[in-house]
Amino acid sequence: MTIDNPYIKRQLMETIVLVEEKGQKLRYSGIQPGVYARSHAVSTDKGNVVYVEGEDYVIDCKAGTISRTRRSRIPDWGNHPVYGIKGFDHRDYPDYSNRDYMIYIDYDYESEDEVNEGISVLAPVNTLDRLIRKLEAGQPLRYIVFGDSISAGGDASRDEFAFYNLFADDLRARYPEAELEVINKALGGEGSTTALERLEQDVIALKPDLVSIGYGMNDQCTMGPDIRNGIPPGIFEENIRKMVLQIQRKTDAEIVLVTPCISNPLWKHSSGDLAIYADILLRLSRELGTGVADVHALWMQELQAGKSHESMLLNNVNHPGDYGHTIYFKAFGHLIP
């Protein structure tokens, strides 16, 4: 579909879970006719179900809400085993994810202005000037992805939908003469302390041109009544500072600190302190002159617009799905003007 009106924007692969016949807010209102809802991110995937407006769901275009019909084929998230349970421990459930309940929606909507929504929430930060010069010169570049399970790609449905590949593909499209290699050295379940221990071997020794560092989600986890955070904010700050200083001292790499998204507040291990960890990363980026991808700010903006935690966390705990990875990618956008 060709859109001539600059105020009409396109939203792709937004995810949502629906309960009974209750309306659930989509990211935007002012929705235009022609909504496309389905069970899989890619419509050609085996088993994909295309849902029919009026039969499976109802859209309130002005309010920007969607709801199931009484006889809808869309799975009712109210049947999820942890629905409504406060303080649930994912280890108590064989399948705690939202994979079987989440649907994907494409739609056009009327925006209030021509500017991409979400970018204005980001504070001014350092851009990746050295990297840009290398890209413009068509040099071969190496991008090391360093972080926890989110940086490892969880829970993107395909590798190409993981935020770091979205970013790398965007760079390749902008600078087709450059050769960009992506090496993922992220480890699921890892916090910043063990990451610091392997920094030399898994990052510095590879002579990167770009490093993204994504920690905080596991560091913040409540581990019991006497351990509010697995890695307290003060130690987290020193770990990240040491990582950045070592990379800066031993390589010519640009560094991007990635603030974490927001975990499900109903999850047993959510401390509610992720904003503290995000603020630390923002402060360190200013202090040490790195780039920053402030995912946390954009994620908060999504929630304030009415999106639910469960609609963005595919594992229902702390992993973004495909839509969540696009939010991560959006947070990188302003680093390359």
Nutshell version of this structure?
The protein has 337 residues and is α/β, with parallel strands linked by helices.
Q: Mind sketching the topology for me?
A:
Layout: E1 8-16, E2 24-25, E3 36-38, E4 50-51, E5 57-60, E6 65-68, E7 103-110, H1 129-136, E8 140-147, H2 163-174, E9 179-184, H3 192-197, H4 199-202, E10 210-214, H5 233-250, E11 254-258, H6 274-288, E12 291-293, H7 295-304, H8 309-312, H9 322-332
Parallel strand pairs: 8-9, 8-10, 10-11, 11-12
Antiparallel strand pairs: 1-7, 2-6, 3-4, 3-7, 5-6
CATH topology of the largest domain: Rossmann fold
Class of secondary structure makeup: alpha/beta
Q: So what's the oligomer here?
A: single chain
CATH superfamily of the largest domain: SGNH hydrolase
- C-alpha Rg, in Å? 20 Å
Helical proportion?
A: 25-40%
Name the CATH architecture of the largest domain.
3-Layer(aba) Sandwich
The helix tally amounts to 9
**Spatial order of strands in the largest sheet:** 9-8-10-11-12
**Which CATH class of the largest domain?**
Alpha Beta
Mean pLDDT: 94
What is the terminal separation in angstroms?
27 Å
Protein name: SGNH hydrolase-type esterase domain-containing protein
GO molecular function: phosphatidylcholine lysophospholipase activity
InterPro entries: Ester_Hydrolysis_Enzymes, Lipase_GDSL_AS, SGNH_hydro, SGNH_hydro_sf
Pfam families: Lipase_GDSL_2
